[in-house]
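Lab notebook, design round three. We kept the backbone fixed and only want residue identities now. Task for the bench partner: fill in a sequence for the structure below.
Input structure tokens:
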């Protein structure tokens, strides 16, 4: 049998972490218990990064400013409407080693 995949290994570690913390907390799932689960927290953040619950948002600029992104910059003027699409940011290979 070959080496287990990283997914299987991570799943096993995650299950162990959750079971151990919940058991030591008298079987109760509380916010304090969840704070003792760093792997669980990382998994949740990664899931939200990969599939953001809100994919886009917009706003009106309250003042002039500059948005810098890697090697470009955009001048935004007061009153202009801005639109943000989260997957562009959360799946940027220049920031994330394995973006997808």
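Proposed sequence:
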């Amino acid at each position: 049998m070959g080496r287990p995949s990283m997914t299987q290994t991570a799943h096993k570690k995650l299950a162990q972490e959750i079971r151990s913390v919940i058991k030591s907390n008298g079987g109760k799932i509380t916010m304090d218990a969840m704070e003792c689960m760093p792997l669980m927290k990382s998994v949740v953040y990664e899931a939200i990064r990969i599939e953001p619950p809100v994919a886009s948002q917009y706003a009106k600029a309250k003042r002039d400013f500059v948005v810098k992104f890697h090697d470009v910059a955009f001048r935004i003027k007061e009153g202009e409407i801005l639109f943000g699409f989260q997957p562009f940011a959360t799946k940027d290979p220049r920031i994330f080693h394995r973006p997808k």
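Keep this in mind before ordering anything: Strands lie at 56-60, 65-69, 72-76, 81-85.
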